[in-house]
Amino acid sequence: MQKTGFNRSIAEFSLDYGKCPPYLFERMVKLAKIIVISIIENFSAEELVYRLSDSVWFQSLGSVLAFDWNASGLTTTTLGALKQAISEIGPEQAGIFICGGKGKTSRKTPDEILKYSYQLGLNQAQTDNLIKTSKLTAKIDSSLVQDGFQLYHHNFIFTKKLNWTVIQQGMNTKIKRARRYHWHSKTIKKNFFETPHATIATEIILPNVFNLIDKKTKQHKTDLLTIVNQKKDLFVEIKRIKNIKTGAQLSLLNLSDNDFKHHSIETEHFTKLPTQITKIFEDKRFIKTIETVTDKPNNNLESLVLTKGVGPKTIRALSLLTEIIFGSKPSFTDPVRYTYAFGGKDGIPYPVNKTVYDKIIQIMETAIKKSSISFSDKNKALKRLEQNFAYDKTKTIA
């Protein structure tokens, strides 16, 4: 943990370009298998999948397995070890199915879901819904949350009861940091497009994040769909922007230069370099995507986001048009819900949650104590657990 001037500790997410040595990964798989079996036996498969959606618990698990606590590799290697452990136990016996992974493996997620769905005897609708959920969560974290982190890791984890957790991670090579996104089926309060994450793990909250999952953007999203479903008007507005000259009015609204200067697409510099706008709206791939979007009805945001070719640039451009025509604005608030594990002893950024703290330790200790590993290995694992949590049973957590 990194000590700061405010007497608090945070988990770091620096980019890690190294590889986990085989000797360590083998042991991580072995201990992960023991922990998985113990948690399923003492609680349930549903509990384990739910716990994996908690970024704090997941970070703790990675630390207990002895991987670096302060690097992006904790995510990829811990999930790799878990996937291998459950594969050795037997997914059907464990009642947990882990699909996807890092890089190219993430693109195999739909095929793995299909394979496990067949083994479970799921019907077509259930299978399609799982695959759609996997794709949708990835699309949202790449296109509706544009925070500068490029997704490169995606795991879709589900149970026989079809409860699911998604863990995916993005990298920002400029600031050399990673960010992890956690989803769970039961923590989506209303829909996928309004503060849907269980948690987002990061050490930095960024300014000016293009964010369409903010509940304050409801009107903007409604207006955006109106634009998309009015094919004629949409292309008229694209033409208007393509033909803009220096100093020409861009909008049906009387927007000031100050509005443009601080617009979400500030990186396009369209007040200073109008040709940058034409660069977006004359892009052949963009125009083809717009044609694809407008050729079918888009009754909801889900349909739009899952349209082939729709990505960050398309959503950004459509959002710009929506603001120009309707005046409703997107959000630029980073959707991170919290960055700290248990809070701080001085109440900064919030008081320590003793119940959660103790619960996590209890679960991990129970799993280790009930395992079949040697007494010596148990002691080592428990010592490592206590070190990672800075936990002293003789004192009150404060």
Mean pLDDT across every amino acid position: 77
What fraction of residues sit in β-strands? 5-15%
Largest sheet: 5 strands, antiparallel
Our Rg estimate from Cα atoms comes to 23 Å
Tally of helical runs: 16
Structure summary, number of beta strands: 10
Q: How many distinct domains? A: 2
Please estimate the helix content: 40-55%
Contiguous low-pLDDT stretches (5 residues minimum) are 1-10, 244-277, 339-346, 390-398
| Order of SSEs | EEHHHHHEHHEEEEEEHHHHHHHEHH
Helix/strand class: alpha+beta
Q: In order across it, which strands form the biggest sheet?
A: 3-5-6-7-8
What would the principal axes of the Cα set say about the shape?
elongated
End-to-end span in angstroms? 17 Å
Could you explain the architecture of this structure?
With 398 residues, the protein is an alpha+beta fold. It folds into 2 domains: 2-206 and 336-389, no CATH class; 215-333, no CATH class. It has 16 helices and 10 strands. The chain has helices at 22-42, 45-52, 55-64, 73-89, 91-94, 109-120, 124-144, 218-228, 231-242, 257-261, 275-281, 284-294, 301-305, 312-326, 354-369, 375-389, and strands at 2-3, 9-10, 96-102, 145-146, 150-159, 164-172, 177-184, 199-201, 207-211, 331-333. The protein has a 5-stranded antiparallel sheet with strand order 3-5-6-7-8, sandwiched between helices. It has a 3-stranded antiparallel sheet with strand order 4-9-10. It has a two-stranded antiparallel sheet with strand order 1-2. A hairpin with a 4-residue loop joins β6 (164-172) and β7. The longest helix has 21 residues, at 22-42. The protein is elongated, with a radius of gyration of 23 Å. The chain starts with a strand and ends in a 9-residue tail after the last helix. Mean pLDDT is 77; it is low at 1-10, 244-277, 339-346 and 390-398.
